[in-house]
Amino acid sequence: MGRIGALALRHWYLLRSSWPRLIDLVYWPTVQMLTWGFITLFLTPVNGPALQGVAALLGAAILWDVLLRAQLGTTMSFLEEMYSRNLGHLLASPLRPVEMMLALAFVGLLRTLVGMIPTSLLAIWFFGYSVYGMGLALAAFFAILMAMGWAVSFFIAGLIMRVGLGAEALAWGLVFAIAPLSAVFYPVAVLPEFLHPIALALPSTHVFEGMRALLLDGTLDPHHLVMGALLDLVYLGLGIAAFLGFHGAARRNGRLLQMGE
Amino acid sequence: MSDAAPEPIPDSASPTALASPVLAVDGLVKHFGPVKAVDGVSFGIAPGTVTGLLGGNGAGKTTLIAMILGLVAPTAGTIRLEGADMAAAPSKARAAMNFSSPYVDLPHRLTVAENLTVFARLYGVAEPRRRVAEMAERLDLSDLLRRPTGRLSAGQRTRVALAKALINRPRLLLLDEPTASLDPDTADWVRRYLLDYQRESGAAILLASHNMAEVERLCADVLMMRQGKVVDHDTPAGLLARYGRDDLEAVFLDIARGRDIGGGPGRQDGGISP
């Protein structure tokens, strides 16, 4: 099974033994989806093109949670090692930093799916909206957001290794700072002109722009998919480099011996 | 756990004449800014020996062990585990050793079996289930395998930590205060087990402890550290004889208070030849 599988197994054991953790994975995405669903119903009359607006908003809410859960799921798996004082055991084992990242990414994917699949099914039940109606494009959007979540998570996990749990707040807040620029619930055109280049430099922006075009106009713009994927490569490269760089710095300054604040 | 007479001290292996040491540390230096935590330490550990690492708080023991484990990067110097360079092949070097330390813990929510299985797989142990069962039997953990690790007593947790540390049959076992916070009976059982393991496996053990009686009983060699340097090295009997003391605690106090006389069989140019 290998070392990556071993670390993934550790987190599988943790999840299956802790129902509060499992509920937490489903609870917040569901609350988010329900809130946006009811807001949308309130704001839009139930007929004609307005239904497409419901789809766009609910689709955006669900996809936004993919990014959020991807990042949180990966970062939380790392934080679990710090909370349980197990990180020293792992870093002193044959597990390589890159293998740790791959294992955390896999666990992040697992946690995201555990949270998002029930939420998406509940959206069908409550609002008659199926995110799966996007077809194959959904898989592409999901992959782009997942990869971006991993990239952000690697950066945060590395930073926590470097400076300690004092940086933990970033784990909960960094992605929210990206939200206004990602044009989750509105098009990029709404943003001030000077913010457009910044917004379009985010893979997530291309997902939400692409999703709106698909749901409102019925067209899938390959430009957004390609840009999202290319930007992901850059972000993942930076995230991996940050994790490895921070890990190296933590080894040099002895931070791995002091895994507290 | 029996209360039989203490085991005799194992035969000494001279670190100056190590043809193929399990651990070879050469010119190891670690600076944290202006602080010299470890300052030019060299030594080797032969297979089948237990080496004690003694020193007061801040002497550099923890940093030295962390560098051997690869958790801290040396400023200078080399560390080799079974010939594998820690800087060039850290994963291979780490696969040859394991450790137990009060500074780390095993995940409390995982059962004993789950924790041991994870680490067996992390260390690439063949037939991990069989190895976990074997370690559980040897360390009297069979009845605890399905219990969450966080619900164990301190003594039980120490045995689980020891099982984790031995799960990959390490050639070098690093132990930091392995019997701290244990009752005398459990501590005695742990010491006996370590000696049995060392004899059976031919593994080397590096033991950091403030329990001088434990060091006298277990160790063939003792490294004395102060202010980041190895200031003396000898067998426990050799140290007692040269310092004219009756126990290692008195020798420890002499050295900690700067009354060391240095020397010892392995001492060369301020360090010990690997």
Oligomer status: heterodimer
Based on Cα principal axes, name the global outline of chain B. Answer: globular
Order of strands across the main sheet of chain B: 6-7-8-3-9-10
SSE order of chain B, one letter for each helix or strand: EEEHEEHEHHHEHEHEEHHEE
End-to-end separation of chain A: 34 Å
Largest sheet of chain B: 6 strands, mixed
Total beta strands of chain A:
0
What does this structure look like?
- The complex is a heterodimer of chains A (261) and B (274).
- Chain A is mostly helical and 261 residues long.
- Chain A contains 10 helices and no strands.
- Chain A has one domain.
- The radius of gyration of chain A is 19 Å and the shape is globular.
- In chain B, the strands form 3 sheets. A 6-stranded mixed sheet of chain B has the order 6-7-8-3-9-10, sandwiched between helices.
- Chain B folds into 2 domains: 17-96 and 172-261, Rossmann fold; 105-169, no CATH class.
- Chain B is built from 9 helices and 12 strands.
- With 274 residues, chain B is of the alpha/beta class.
